[in-house]
Amino acid sequence: MASKKSECVKVVVRCRPLSEKEIREGNERIMEMDVPRGCIRITNPKSRHGEQPREFTYDAIYDWNSRQTDLYEETFRITVDSVLEGYNGTIFAYGQTGTGKTFTMEGVRNDPELCGVIPNSFDHIFKHIARSHDKQFLVRASYLEIYLEEIRDLLSKDQKKRLDLKERPDTGIYVKDLSSFVTKSVKEIEHVMNVGNQNRSVGRTNMNEHSSRSHAIFIITVECSEVRDDGENHIRVGKLNMVDLAGSERQSKTGSEGELFQQAVKINLSLSALGNVIHALVDGKSTHIPYRDSKLTRLLQDSLGGNTKTVMVATVGPADYNYEETLTTLRYANRAKDIKNKPRINEDPKDALLREFQEEIARLKSRLTQKGKKRTRRRGHRGDPGEGNGGEFDEEDEDTSGLALKEQSAQIEREKQELLHNENLVAEERDKLVTELQQKQELLQKKQEARDTMASKIQAMESKLLVGGKTVVDHTTEQERKVEAMKLELAEQKVIAFGVSWYVSSLVLRC
Q1: Would you give the end-to-end CA distance of the chain in angstroms?
Q2: CA–CA distance from 242 to each of 91, 136, 217, 313 (Å)?
């Protein structure tokens, strides 16, 4: 059953370690992180003696010692699980430039310990499919960026083309003509992302050698089909949006000039629009939510106040010289906690591609097995001394199956040989009948080629539909499964412990 309850956006904060440059220049850490309580205290380095640190509490926090796997297992896994159940999910990283947003979202691909949210989600999704039973899946991937307030398809061959936002009553906001690639394995979906990353806009600033100059959104659509107790085939569609926002920045610190400066202006304007949307959603007074103020907020409209389970990870730096930016990020994240979404399972949508595939495969298979017209049967011809020698052709029901076509072709070849050796026919009449048989043979050849083409199309379409244990096989050993289960159990225990700690702390404060 689809849930009609509202739920708040989940907000976590991650703090990176001091960089080598910050250590070398003598910068100090101004943050204290009470991880079990999800509490952060930040001290103003210019504060007068006796001024208390500012304190913020979130759903979870991760300090400079946190690991990528901890973040995924404790915070993001549940969102991906929800997408596999048919919900929409969004994970987006927000923060000052150089605080680790792209590292959190992507990480280091070839290192299991350093993989970010996106590659971990790939592994998660395809393992789930491999371990499923009596279900069919279709997995698609798209990749776009918002650069200078223009939407670009990172997977398109034409990187100069700009795309438009459209809206439909049934599906909401979408990007017109955005390409979507069906993927059948982790390797294939990784390839899709690698292609997109090569087209993404990056630049070098004083704060980040590989600064993202655009907002990037990687979209995975998972469609699942299963036959329920009612005997009907039901389809659920979950969509996972993984958003790596460009970092907010100050020109005085980044040293951006020229084109980089123009990029920074657009980035900050869109992030400001995002902040205005968050503020309007939580202040309780606004009658208008300014989603249309930027392309970013329009695309995230369903993720902020709509039909989506959303997780925001705010990334911050611990150094004293970034106090203002860090405080702004923490306030931003604190406000986002109060946004309420109303996620529901997307069941049997009209535009499910999986249903189109199933119906087209069934139609093509029906055409392959059906019986049509125009079966040729020889009729006696004047001057024919006996049955089977020469003749004209009538039309009756024809079996167009592959085996029947081969039998008919063999029969025609036998009749042609008989005609060639029939001395009772004059040469002119023999040539005419042989020509008719050759034409018939060519027609059968075309039919066979059409059948082969149809069969190849069915095979190609069926190969895109994933079935656990058949088209996708789980190669995980029993020992690896036990380790996975233990990790998941530990992550759940940490979440429960955090909830208890937070509840006890709130009681203490009330007293």
Answers
A1: 41
A2: 5, 24, 6, 11
State the helix-helix crossing angle for 117-130 and 77-85, rounded to 10 degrees: 40
Of 243, 251, 253, the C-alpha closest to 274 is 243
Radius of gyration of the chain (CA): 32
CB-based contacts of 333, cutoff 8 Å, min separation 6: 11, 13, 56, 58, 94, 312, 314
Contact partners, residue 140, CB within 8 Å, separation at least 6 = 180, 181, 182, 183, 220, 221, 223, 353
Predicted TM-score (pTM) of this structure = 0.79
| pLDDT score of 355 | 86
How far apart are the C-alpha atoms of 140 and 125, rounded to whole Å? Answer: 12
Task: Answer whether 89's CB lies under 8 Å from 82's CB.
Answer: yes
Among 152, 148, 201, 197, CA closest to 179: 152
β-pair type (136-147, 466-467): antiparallel
Contact 269, 290 (CB under 8 A): no
Chain centre to alpha carbon of residue 143: 8
108, amino acid identity: V
CA atoms within 13 A on the CB side of 349: 23
In this prediction, residue 462 has a pLDDT band, given cuts at 50, 70 and 90, of confident
pLDDT, tens digit, 9 for 90 and up, residues 97-136: 889 999 999 999 889 899 999 999 999 999 999 999 889 9
Ramachandran bin of 220, using left for φ above 0, alpha for ψ from -120 to 50, beta for the remaining angles: beta
Give, for 217, the enclosing helix (H) or strand (E): strand 215-227
